[in-house]
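User: Exodeoxyribonuclease III, Mycolicibacterium wolinskyi:
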Amino acid sequence: MTVSTINVNGIRAAVKQRSTENLGLLPWLKETDADVVCLQETRADDEQLADALAPALADGWKLASADPHLKGRNGVAVLSRHPIDASRLLVSDEFEAHGRYLEVDTAGTTVVSVYFPTGEAETDRQLEKERFMGTVAARMALLLANDAVVCGDWNIAHTENDIKNWKGNVKKAGFLPAERAWLTELLATGWVDVVRVLHPDVAGPYSWWSWRGKAFDNDAGWRIDYHLASPTLAARATAARVDRAEAYALRWSDHSPVTVTYG
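Assistant: Predicted structure for Exodeoxyribonuclease III:
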């Protein structure tokens, strides 16, 4: 099974404004070898999402989604070429309706699409992010013994190899010592960062670059889109890649799809 994850930075923009006949999310879905695709930041309710993805659904993709409680923000979804046997939201009084977590069972595997808050150092936004981190970690502890993978935009660069300009970001959300330590502790429980395992001791491969300046051209990116797989599933991971656009003008999101094949 091959699984991909992509923050689409607005589903309608990804399939329309930033698309041409051969560019955008819909052509990518036609060409990808992925069996399951996790989407984040759809910024659409369930009806708008299904409408935007109608051509893909007509091609046979199955869709489960969690729309956001605030219009035009958040939103996660999972597309699968296989039947989706069940879907679940994050059980949380605070976060269940936020459209940041969706868990599905498909092809004998539990696949999660997650979108962590960006946060902002020393503000209430960072405290909210930390509460979300704790809530997700508690749920992941219950999934660890299964064939499961938690995919998405984690908004945390774990190590210096995961961010080009790490020296300039040590006091900023996304590279704070506490965030990085939390991710280290999560991995210590048994979850496996399969992209890093398959690409050890290298810078990147980055998956997010700012729209501004020359960040993309200079590969001044962040690796914040992860596949964290349970031990049984991680043992089957054979290949991982970032589907980076060949040029800035060919991008249809500020993220690129991160794809892992589990043999």
